[in-house]
Each structure stands twice: as C-alpha cells, then as structure tokens.
Amino acid sequence: MKKIIFTLILAMSAQLAIATGVPDQYVRAVEKISNQYSADMKFFLRSLDPKITQFSPQQQQQFCGIVKKYVDDMYQVSDQNRQYLPLSVQSMTKQNVIDKVMLSPEMQLLKKYNIQCDFL
After folding, report:
1. pLDDT tens track for 43-83
2. CA quadruple 84, 88, 93, 99: dihedral positive or negative?
3. Nearest Cα to 11, choosing from 79, 120, 108?
4. Which domain holds residue 29?
5. How many domains does the chain have?
6. Is residue 119 part of a domain?
7. Highest taxon of the source (predicted)?
8. Is residue 12 part of a domain?
C-alpha cells in the first residue's frame, strides 16, 4: 500500500508540474507542495499496521485531510498561475483537480480500502 500511495504522489506531481513556459515560481511551488504531501503521506503510512485491510474512521479522516490539502494547494497555485499554463489547463476547476486525483490508477487501486473523501 505504501508503494501505491508513493506512486500516486509522483504521478500527480508530474502531471501538474510539467508544462512548457511556466514560471520557475510555479514549478518551485508545485515541488514544495509535492514534497510536503510526500512527507505527510510517508509519516501517515509509517503509522499504519501493514496488515490492515481497511482504514479506521480516524485513519480515513487523516488520509483524506492529507489528500485534501494537496488538492487545495495544487488548485490554488494553478489558479494563481493560470495565465502561464497551457490553454488545456487554464480552464481547470477545483473539481477537475479532484477528478484527476480520484481517477488516477493509484487511487483506483485504493478503492479496495473503501476510502471515501470529500474534497470540496
């Protein structure tokens, strides 16, 4: 499970950070957000029993909080730099960011843990 979530971190970071002509400030902000997300997720995952098959309500709340902060921060930095992003990304809404996260292959693998998060 740790490997799945770490892969999720890398995939989402790469998708949002790779764009031509974006300012260095945007790229650094995305890297900072991704690094914080990675650190928070690693700390969370180390606290889990490797034999679990489902998150407890407290674990789900903690996990969802980490992912929600990532979604919020990524949307905010993208919104602030919208004018520099490719046209295909300029019209991105927060719901689009949420959808991208939830539809990632890594999050699909986590469905078996019955994790339900509200990111709005």
Report:
1. 988 898 888 888 999 999 999 999 999 999 999 999 999 98
2. negative
3. 108
4. 2-113
5. 1
6. no
7. Bacteria
8. yes
CA distances from 27 to 37, 88, 119 (A): 15, 17, 23
Answer yes or no: is 61 within a domain: yes
For residues 114 and 79, give the distance between their C-alpha atoms in angstroms, rounded to a whole number. 31
**Residue 33 within any structural domain of the chain:** yes
Q: What would the pLDDT profile of 85-107 be if each residue is shown by its tens digit?
A: 888 778 889 999 899 888 877 77
* CA 55 – CA 24 distance, rounded (Å): 38
Task: Enter the tokens of residue 90.
Answer: 């300029």
Amino acid present at 93: T
Question: In whole angstroms, what is the distance from residue 16 CA to residue 30 CA?
Answer: 8
